[in-house]
Design goal:
Two copies of one chain form a homodimer. Chain A has nine helices and twelve strands. Chain A is of the alpha+beta class. Chain A has two domains: about 110 residues, 2-Layer Sandwich (60s Ribosomal Protein L30, Chain: A); about 160 residues, PurM-like C-terminal domain (Phosphoribosyl-aminoimidazole Synthetase, Chain A, domain 2), CATH 3.90.650. Chain A has a seven-stranded mixed beta sheet with strand order 7-9-6-10-8-11-12. Chain A has a five-stranded mixed beta sheet with strand order 1-2-5-3-4, with helices on one face. In chain A, helix 2 runs parallel beside helix 6. The longest helix of chain A is centred in the N-terminal third of the chain and has 19 residues. The two termini of chain A are about 20 Å apart. Chains A and B meet through helix 1, strand 2, strand 3, helix 3 and strand 4 of A and helix 1, strand 2, strand 3, helix 3 and strand 4 of B.
Chain lengths: ~300, ~300
């Protein structure tokens, strides 16, 4: 079963107005909440990632969802399941990594249990404070499409790791193992915005985020491939276009805004219509939600990522 | 490694003032948060529990932690990992069970991923509203010790299930598979209390909760075994005293109060001193924290529960 089919079933059963964005916004309480799983041999492989990096990434992945909502991160809880072979050193390093990523944001609780494989489920809670909270439903034609950071780096890093290269100073490998949630950029956007805006992170890839916004908002997202920021030597990878669009795990922000915040680059414009249009030098393609889903990694295929 | 050793390591690494109670109380934001894991073949066995009951129990376990804090439940998120063999019907029934248990409390999000075994990590968030939030540190000599409901039922139910009996009308089996978080009693206590009080649920057993309060508050908890409410025919189980004290998973409340709320029974008194003293008809025993830990189920032993 594909993930989006599963989510469809769950939405049907729960009939909850909150399910749709990565963070649920509980307006009464002024908080946003998100929970993400990282499962051994599905989302990570202990051969490539150290316990410290794993703890670090587990927290960043969730803080990135908070960043995408525009909220101020408040606290984290961690549900952890560990096999018996895991050592005290592993656990210490894992928590050190989590603490490093969390910085001033407190890890306030959670649960730790046994299991056959390492399973991590982190919950992050944020406050709306005096910020405007985003939704993928809020894109409007006429807005600019903007992204933070470089794209395709994390997936390139995974390719290098799989090929046996493990140099932690390599920018691609660093991007894959120690991603950075864009909390500062998010804060600036959410405090500056005076109209509704769409924002997501690129956890599942840039094309997926753009397409999800297009689909949820009922608009066409038109971007220019050459405007997407990337490390120059990404082009050394034969499939670099796929890495940029479908690689995922860069945890950069994609937003539709009518202003240009520091750290964000304009890559296109929101138009009337539907789907995702990507303009290249000499041709363009229009991708439906189905096209994207076909291209995307599917969690239930068991592909190690 | 024992669970309390692990928690010691984690506390040391995180150095967080919040870790100690089952719910972390974020006073600035006026919220409490708790996250609990349920792992296949450690916390449950699909041979004994239906997907509906599993969903139901996963939610109740977490709502019970909210009840123990005294807070008003606000929302839930669910991290779920499912093996490939799990059917659409399983998932639908699981979410129906969760929804049934949640009632008016919204399930607002979460994550669903693949995995080798069923792994469930539920986060529950509550609001302090106009309530007094409990802590296991808040017991004071002179307070009464009170419990809700009947004790030992859930563990008796598990024994029956393991022996091949599966009648869902049997009160013990019902207590094990479909426990009830004591939200109404908790609400009454938290709205009535005008002084600090200790409260926990009996997820890990009545003796463990009493001992944890004694240890965290630096007091002696003195209880009278015969005053602990139980189903009369629990005595048909040879080990019924162990079921009452160490069985766990009844999800009843234990509190130290200076008033007697509806639905709670006085079973003893908080005294100066340390440890847990249990008075029987013709003898008494004093149990240290270590004694209790030795007796308790250890998640890392892989005992199916």
């Amino acid at each position: 079963m594909k993930e989006h089919e599963l989510i469809g079933i769950i939405k049907g059963e729960l009939n909850s107005k909150y399910i749709g964005d990565d963070c649920a916004y509980i307006t009464d309480a002024g908080i946003v909440v998100t929970q993400d799983n990282l499962v051994e041999d599905i989302h990570f492989c202990l051969e490539y990632i150290s316990p410290f990096e794993l703890g670090y990434k587990s927290v960043m992945v969730n803080l990135s969802d908070i960043a995408a909502s525009g909220a101020e991160p408040l606290c984290l809880t961690v549900g952890l399941s560990l096999p018996k072979y895991v050592t005290t050193e592993f656990i210490k390093d894992f928590y050190r990594g989590m603490k490093k990523a969390a910085g001033k944001i407190q890890i306030v609780g959670g649960d730790i249990t046994g299991g056959d494989k390492v399973f991590i489920s982190v919950t992050a809670i944020g406050k709306d404070s005096d910020r405007k909270i985003s939704s993928r439903k809020f894109a409007k034609s006429g807005q600019k499409i903007l992204v933070s950071g470089n794209h395709g780096s994390s997936a390139a890093g995974l390719e290098l790791l799989k090929s046996g290269i493990s140099d932690r100073n390599n920018p691609f490998i660093k991007a894959h193992l120690m991603p950075m949630a864009r909390l500062d950029i998010s804060k600036n956007i959410a405090k500056t915005a005076n109209k509704n805006y769409a924002m997501m992170d690129t956890s599942d890839g840039l094309a997926d985020a753009l397409s999800a916004i297009a689909y949820a908002s009922g608009v066409k997202m038109v971007i220019n491939f050459d405007k997407i920021p990337k490390y120059k030597n990404l082009e050394q990878f034969e499939n670099y276009k796929d890495l940029v669009l479908y690689g995922g795990e860069d945890y950069e922000l994609v937003a539709t805004l009518d202003f240009i915040p520091e750290g964000m680059t304009v890559i296109g414009e929101v138009m009337k219509g539907q789907g995702l249009e990507i303009i290249y030098d000499d041709y363009k393609e229009i991708l439906t939600r189905k096209d994207i889903e076909r291209k995307l990694y599917n969690h239930f295929e068991g592909n190690e990522k």
